[in-house]
């Protein structure tokens, strides 16, 4: 639980009063643009950084006054893998177990349990440096679970993974939730939050601008979306600038905007036609987490359009 967390670096205020509550056994996804304060929040909650103001407790312990107790109750998987590339998968887990003072035999036993749980038994004797990206992330997650912590912080754990590896890690996260682990997840992938989270908190400008379930946030956006694909890909930036409120997605080669009424589609097509931009495809869609994120972070105030 966090109340009124603030943090500045030099003259830049990164957090301006963050409030968070993560119910036991649930997954809360923390979303926000780059630089919005997601990682700073995680670093404070994991005792790696002291807040300037506000209070936070993890597992009932104050993060500033009871850091040792907090660290005993949590596991952390950061954006960069922390495993040693020169050690085997088994050696990495035994090393982490040793850091928790498990003793040699218990350390070996715990390493074997985790290798099996994270489907790494077949690669246990290989150096971690030879693992695929997905395997290394699973090993990193296994290392954070050596002490069987009740609370897990995952800071963008699937960044850089291919879709198959990402789906495999999602499956592991669901298994952890099923066993009662409480998880705070930061992610760049909005589908990930939609698939995994019980609740989503969106921060923008160092403050919380939304806190609800994925379904409720999509209902809040409410309106159907128009998706328009220009016939000429080179026209996409100009089309986005021509239509007010449009969100350009270069990867999909399309732009989307909230449907304002029954005549909005005809109006949008007329505007693009007048600008000499032919449209190849038109589609109506229900709101997605991408739409939620865009509308919540599109303005400095974070207010819904």
Automatic annotation (TrEMBL):
Main location: membrane
Residues in ABC transporter domain copies: 2-230
GO cellular component terms, semicolon-separated: plasma membrane
Annotated membrane topology: Peripheral membrane protein
SUPFAM superfamilies noted in UniProt: P-loop containing nucleoside triphosphate hydrolases
Gene Ontology biological process terms from the UniProt entry: daunorubicin transport; doxorubicin transport; response to antibiotic
Stored InterPro entries: AAA+_ATPase (IPR003593), ABC_transporter-like_ATP-bd (IPR003439), ABC_transporter-like_CS (IPR017871), ABC_transporter_ATP-binding (IPR050763), DrrA (IPR005894), DrrA1/2-like_C (IPR025302), P-loop_NTPase (IPR027417)
Gene3D superfamilies, per the entry: P-loop containing nucleotide triphosphate hydrolases
Entry GO MF terms: ATP binding; ATP hydrolysis activity
Subcellular location: Cell membrane
Keywords: Antibiotic resistance, ATP-binding, Cell membrane, Membrane, Nucleotide-binding, Translocase, Transport
One Pfam family from the record: ABC_tran
Family of the protein in this entry: Belongs to the ABC transporter superfamily. Drug exporter-1 (DrugE1) (TC 3.A.1.105) family.
Protein name: ABC-2 type transport system ATP-binding protein
Protein species of origin: Nonomuraea thailandensis
Lineage of origin: Bacteria, Bacillati, Actinomycetota, Actinomycetes, Streptosporangiales
């Amino acid at each position: 639980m966090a109340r009124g967390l603030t943090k500045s670096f030099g003259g830049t205020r990164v957090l301006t009063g963050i409030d968070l509550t993560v119910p036991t056994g649930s997954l809360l996804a923390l979303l926000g643009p780059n630089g919005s304060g997601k990682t700073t929040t995680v670093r404070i909650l994991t005792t790696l950084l002291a807040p300037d103001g506000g209070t936070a407790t993890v597992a009932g312990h104050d993060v500033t006054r009871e850091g040792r107790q907090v660290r005993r109750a949590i596991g952390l998987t950061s954006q960069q893998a922390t495993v040693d590339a020169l050690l085997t998968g088994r050696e990495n887990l035994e090393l982490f177990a040793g850091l928790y003072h498990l003793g040699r035999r218990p350390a070996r036993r715990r390493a074997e349990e985790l290798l099996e749980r994270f489907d790494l038994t077949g690669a246990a004797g290989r150096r971690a440096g030879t693992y695929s990206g997905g395997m290394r992330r699973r090993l990193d997650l296994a290392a954070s679970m050596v002490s069987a912590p009740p609370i897990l912080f995952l800071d963008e754990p699937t960044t850089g993974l291919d879709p198959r590896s990402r789906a495999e890690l999602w499956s592991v996260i669901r298994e952890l939730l099923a066993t009662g682990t409480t998880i705070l997840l930061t992610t760049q992938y909005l589908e990930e939050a939609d698939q995994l989270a019980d609740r989503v908190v969106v921060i923008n400008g160092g403050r919380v601008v939304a806190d609800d379930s994925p379904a409720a946030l999509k209902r809040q956006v409410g309106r159907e979306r128009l998706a328009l694909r220009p016939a000429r890909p080179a026209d996409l930036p100009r089309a986005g600038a021509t239509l007010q409120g449009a969100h350009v997605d270069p990867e999909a080669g399309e732009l989307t905007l909230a449907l304002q009424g029954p005549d909005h589609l005809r109006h949008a097509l007329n505007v693009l036609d007048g600008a000499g931009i032919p449209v190849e495809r038109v589609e109506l869609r229900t709101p997605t987490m991408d739409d939620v994120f865009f509308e919540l972070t599109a303005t400095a105030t974070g207010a819904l359009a």
